[in-house]
Every structure is written in structure tokens, then in C-alpha cells.
Amino acid sequence: MEQLVRNISPESTRPLRHQVLWPHIARTEDCVTDTDFVEGAIHLGVYCEDRLVSVGSLFPTPSPRLSNAKQYRLRAMATDPEFRGRHCGAALVRSAITLLKEKGVEVLWCDARLHATGFYEKLGFSMLEEVYEVPRIGPHRCMWIDLQGA
């Protein structure tokens, strides 16, 4: 199955965000983050069979848990349940890593839901020990990858 990763609009991320991440939000058009339109924001989508099946957003945001100078955050990553296990999410993260390395970014990090930590570990991310609660979503861990060594 051919996968195509490309830049997409923040609006294009909303249906998958709603379906996969935030079904508790009443309307798809309300599945917006406070960083969707910040300077330097990047929204990526994976297309399979001309269908948008995975989304993720990148923002120039430092983690309070990490000390590296130039950081980006991966946020609101979602893959259509019909396409899970087909490496669409991995393709998105690998593309994000390549893109951010070219920009000279030092670290990519995310707040990972506990059930997703294995996914990120397989892609080379490290995990901080602390487990913390994201309101209305559940327990998470900070995961990060050193892009200079990746």
C-alpha cells in the first residue's frame, strides 16, 4: 500500500482528531488546538488510496521537562482505526523527523498516551518516568527523540 505524506491545512486534521482523539468534543470544527496557527506550525497528513488516514501537527514549543534549545512538539496525532497496523503513523513521524532535522531542530517531543508509548519507542523515542494526567484525556508520559543523533 503506497503512502504519501504531505503538508496539510490545520482544518484538514479535524475529522481524524474528532474521530480518534476527541470524540467527547461535540463538533468536528471545534477540534482545534491553541497552537494550530502559531508561526512555524506544520500539519502533516498521510494519504493511502487517496484517503487522508493519519494526521499529526508539529509546533515550535519547548517542553518544560527538557533542556534542549530548539524543540518542536508533536501533537494531536491520529490514525484512522481502519488503517492502524499499516505503518501510516510511523510514516508520518519519520517524515516529521526528516523535516525537522533539515530545519536544525534538536528535539522532537510529545505527550504520549500510555497505550501509545510502545509505538514511539519503536521509532527511537525515549520516555521520561513521570506519569501525568491530561484533563479529560487521561494519563500520559513525555517522550522525546534527539534529532541530532537520530
Gist of the model:
The chain has helices at residues 10-21, 88-102, 117-122, and strands at 3-7, 42-48, 51-59, 71-79, 107-113, 126-134, 138-146.
Overview of this protein structure:
By secondary structure, the chain is of the alpha+beta class. It has one domain: 3-Layer(aba) Sandwich (Aminopeptidase). The chain has a 7-stranded mixed beta sheet, sandwiched between helices. Helix 2 links the parallel strand 4 and strand 5.
* CATH-derived architecture: 3-Layer(aba) Sandwich
CATH T-level topology: Aminopeptidase
Shape: globular
| Uncertain parts | none
The N- to C-terminal Cα distance equals: 26 Å
Number of strands: 7
Q: Which class do the helix and strand fractions yield?
A: alpha+beta
Query: Which superfamily, in CATH terms, is the homologous superfamily?
Result: Gcn5-related N-acetyltransferase (GNAT)
What topology does this entry show?
Elements: E1 3-7, H1 10-21, E2 42-48, E3 51-59, E4 71-79, H2 88-102, E5 107-113, H3 117-122, E6 126-134, E7 138-146
Parallel strand pairs: 4-5
Antiparallel strand pairs: 1-2, 2-3, 3-4, 5-7, 6-7
Keywords:
single chain, 150 residues, alpha+beta, Aminopeptidase, seven-stranded mixed β-sheet, 22% helix, 37% strand, globular
